[in-house]
Amino acid sequence: MASVLVFFTLFFPLLHILAKNPIRHSRRIARCRRIIGWLSSICVGIRYRFNYETAIDWTTPHIICANHTSNLDITAMVLLCPADFSFIGKIELLDNPVTGLFFRTIDIPLNRKSNISAFKAFKRADSNLRNGRSMAIFPEGHIGEEFPPSLYDFKNGPFKLAIETKVPIVPVVIHNAWKIFWDDAKRFGSRPGTVLVEVFTPINTAHLPLEHADQLRDEVHALIKKHWNRTGGL
Q1: Domain residues of the chain, as ranges?
Q2: I need a surface site. Which of 46, 63, 153, 209 has the fewest CB within 10 A?
Q3: Are 123 and 145 in contact (CB under 8 A)?
Q4: Are 80 and 199 in contact (CB under 8 A)?
Q5: Torsion of CA 160, 162, 163, 167, to 10 degrees
Q6: What pTM was estimated for this model as a whole?
Q7: Per-residue pLDDT tens digits for 52-93
Q8: How many helices (H) and strands (E) does the chain have?
């Protein structure tokens, strides 16, 4: 959205200073991103409604797993989690003028074509979680080409990570972002509206052996698919 770029530009002098020491200023950088997401959405008439199955204690780390059909999904995650957190995302986001700053500071870029890059990215994510910082991951790994969108198979990395660090998984369904702003909106444009986000009870992983990662992945995929379809996601 152009509004994101406008507000990012307004915040850039401050972010540029904070980015010189991202470890020390990670909270401030995350707070700036949250404000930019809120202001840029309000400016173009986009709202977010979050429905929680149960209350979530964000003072402890979680892995947030959501379906991915729109660039609005990023803002939805930013506004959903009030605590500091990091995204894992494709390395191409480093080239974007807005996301690039955040992926050079508080987020984790991943080159899916490189096993070394993936290993390093998940090692950083492991360290974040063990140090109390939540992670947001879109386990489909990309936005699909077809319209209306489908729910793709999930990668198993987030689920192995959850079991290894004994951190709960928070399944999230973003119901209609694609109807308001599909992918980057170049083909179908965008319109004002309310993005509906359903947040499910965190799934405890502390008792799970690593060999159950695939089972956990399939469980979360089935939960998201069931609820996304039920509300007209497809």
Answers
A1: 46-230
A2: 209
A3: no
A4: yes
A5: 170
A6: 0.92
A7: 999 999 999 999 999 999 999 999 999 999 988 999 999 999
A8: 8, 7
